[in-house]
Amino acid sequence: xxxxxxxxxxxxxRDAQATGIYPLFIPLSQSEGSEAYVGDHRIIMCGANNxxxxxxxxxxxxxxxxAIREFGTGCSGSRLQNGTLEIHRELERRLxxxxxxxxxxxxxxxxxxxxGVISALVSKGExxxxxxxxxxxxxxxxxxxxxxxxxFRHNSMEDLERALASLPLEVGKLVVVDGVFSVGGEIAPxxxxxxxxxxxxxxxxxxxxHAIGVLGGGRGTSAHFGVSDDVDLxxxxxxxxxxxxxxxxxxxxxxxxxxxxxxxxxxxSAALTPPNVAAVLAAxxxxxxxxxxxxxxxxxxxxxxxxxRDLGFEIGDSQTPIIPIIIGDDLRTLLVWKxxxxxxxxxxxxxxxxxxxxxxxxxxSYMATHTDEQLDEVLEVMERVGKExxxxx
Length: 393
Hints:
This protein has 15 helices and 14 strands. The termini are far apart. The protein has 2 domains: 11-45 and 291-388, Aspartate Aminotransferase, domain 1 (Alpha-Beta Complex), CATH 3.90.1150; 58-289, 3-Layer(aba) Sandwich (Aspartate Aminotransferase, domain 2), CATH 3.40.640.10. The strands form 3 sheets. A 7-stranded mixed sheet has the order 4-10-9-8-7-5-6, with helices on both faces. The protein is globular. By secondary structure, it is an alpha/beta fold. The protein has helices at residues 5-8, 12-19, 58-71, 86-99, 110-121, 136-144, 157-165, 190-199, 221-225, 253-262, 264-267, 274-289, 291-311, 330-342, 372-388, and strands spanning 30-31, 35-38, 41-45, 103-107, 127-131, 148-152, 173-178, 203-207, 233-237, 247-251, 322-328, 345-346, 348-350, 360-365. Helix 4 packs parallel to helix 12 (274-289) and helix 7 runs parallel beside helix 8 (190-199). The longest helix has 21 residues, at 291-311.
């Protein structure tokens, strides 16, 4: 059998393209945050992670431009060698302070944070325990680690305790969960997880990619629950509320020092570029100086969750501005996505294996910069298309 046979036999995407319901790789010609254009087709963007709407903020844009003028476009090397700039150190200091930890380490992408941290910490004979709906970067980090991965049912504390109780007490253990789950919008019950980690002598890492800038006044899930001191490691990304690219891990100084010298995804990657770093610093300033953005975002989340439930849509257990529209059937989900797109509402499609079988959905997410008029338009289109597709009465 030829290695490439799997490539030529993969037809699912081409079939969708041929029928005009392919929802991926759509090229945006213009994007102004809450609205965008595909050619001359206007859409209200309900599929981005730009939660605070900062990608178009004048201060963020200017900070990136100024950094290019001062430092150039790239670092041309790893952080260990020639790639560390003063602004990398400044960002790490400020992030650690922001999330309430001793030290932080900045990676070139958020995906690399989980790859590097988990694989560096979990050695042979040790265990990493994850929620079954954790992000792919966590799963891949576990697969790279030399230890053993155990999984528990989504947000089930009984199943987490079962998994932890089955492991030898004396061996190293790391529990990893998303603070906010990126598809369903649920919040992990951190206080209960902290209690179980203490009971079974496990360390605890929270992936706050979708919680920084959203919960806890912007500081994430640990701050939201008041358990920052009890969570060992906090991970975040810059491609969402921070309006840039990259990621970080924050924790005790000794742990971050170890990771800086053992996390291969950090050690062998080029340093985060100056404009990306500067954009994050500017976004962090805005988060602190303009808390009303975070408040507005969560007000929108409350409004849209209630509106969808009132209309009769199935939205699961969402508690955040990430709100799924659960449809079930794959083809039906694609057809509804296309109708919404044609009507000017952009959503994200999730099909198996990204979601469980018969749980295909449209993921909607909202920004602090969405206007009430835009939200009204979204709900009007959703109601009309939902009735056409017999999703709602």
